[in-house]
């Protein structure tokens, strides 16, 4: 046993999963939890949710540093108030919300946004759109841990570096709030930290491997990646409650 309750085989498999997931996240700017969460949960429940959130935090911080000069600070400022309001409202109402109906609503709205975008309807990231995307993201993040897709859809036409940097700036706030919440309920302890540290090199490796392909990816794949990862998040939310 390499870590308490985790075999070397499982750790190596998890290392591979995180490397691949971090590579995809490094290209698209988000989606690490969506890409690795289900697989790590199947490998061993100990990987969920604390270690995954810590790895997302590491990945988000690395992308934020790499794309720091491309961050659209106006977009961040305009989406954060909505994010805070959405998170606060969900926290206040979570005990009284019909989770199934709420998940169907948000999942459906994401699919609608993807469908409208694919039909050629241009979404302009103005103040109202960004505030609404932030509010929806904050609400969704509190209910399901998935907060970035609404903002990613709003920013789908942004250049790759700007998209990654802006999403990371907002996403880091979500990670910080999630870590505080997990620690407050005793779900973030020594084992979770050890698992995250053991898999951190995999996140760094996947992130570094994405460097070379980023320029090619940005030319033709940014919008499809946003649509794909956003659709996966919506489908996962619907499957959890249907």
Description:
The model has no long low-confidence stretch (mean pLDDT about 85). The chain has ten helices and no strands. It has about 240 residues and is an all-alpha fold. The relative contact order is 0.20. The protein has one domain (about 10-240). It has helices spanning about 10-30, 30-45, 50-65, 75-95, 100-120, 125-145, 150-155, 160-185, 190-220, 220-240. Helix 1 packs antiparallel against helix 2 (about 30-45), helix 1 runs parallel beside helix 9 (about 190-220) and helix 5 (about 100-120) packs antiparallel against helix 10 (about 220-240). The termini are far apart.
**What does the main sheet amount to?**
none
For the termini, the CA-CA separation is 38 Å
Taken as a percent bin, the fraction of beta residues is under 5%
Helix/strand order, N-terminal first: HHHHHHHHHH
Kindly list the characteristics that best describe this protein.
242 residues, mainly alpha, 10 helices, 79% helix, globular
Give a brief description.
The chain has 242 residues and is mainly alpha-helical.
Draw up the topology in text.
Layout: H1 8-28, H2 32-43, H3 50-66, H4 73-93, H5 99-118, H6 127-144, H7 149-154, H8 160-184, H9 190-220, H10 222-241
Helix pairs in contact: 1-2, 1-9, 2-3, 3-8, 3-9, 4-6, 4-8, 5-10
């Amino acid at each position: 046993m390499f870590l308490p309750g985790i075999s070397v085989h499982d750790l190596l498999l998890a290392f591979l999963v995180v490397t691949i997931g971090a590579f995809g996240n490094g290209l698209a700017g988000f989606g690490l939890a969506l890409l690795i969460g289900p697989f790590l949960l199947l490998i061993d429940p100990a990987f969920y949710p604390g270690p995954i959130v810590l790895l997302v935090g590491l990945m988000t911080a690395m992308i934020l540093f790499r794309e720091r000069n491309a961050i659209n600070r106006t977009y961040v400022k305009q989406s954060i108030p909505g994010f805070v309001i959405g998170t606060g409202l969900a926290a206040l109402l979570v005990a009284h919300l019909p989770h199934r109906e709420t998940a169907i609503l948000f999942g459906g709205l994401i699919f609608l946004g993807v469908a409208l975008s694919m039909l050629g309807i241009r979404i302009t990231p103005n103040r109202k759109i960004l505030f609404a995307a932030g509010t929806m993201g904050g609400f969704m993040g509190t209910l399901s841990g998935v907060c970035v897709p609404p903002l990613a859809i709003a920013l789908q036409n942004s250049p790759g570096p700007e998209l990654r940097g802006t999403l990371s700036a907002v996403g880091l706030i979500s990670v910080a709030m999630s870590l505080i919440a997990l620690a407050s309920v005793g779900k973030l302890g020594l084992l979770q930290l050890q698992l995250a540290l053991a898999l951190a090199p995999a996140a760094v490796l996947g992130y570094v491997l994405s460097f070379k392909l980023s320029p090619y990816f940005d030319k033709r794949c940014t919008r499809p990646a946003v649509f794909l990862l956003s659709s996966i998040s919506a489908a996962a939310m619907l499957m959890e409650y249907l």
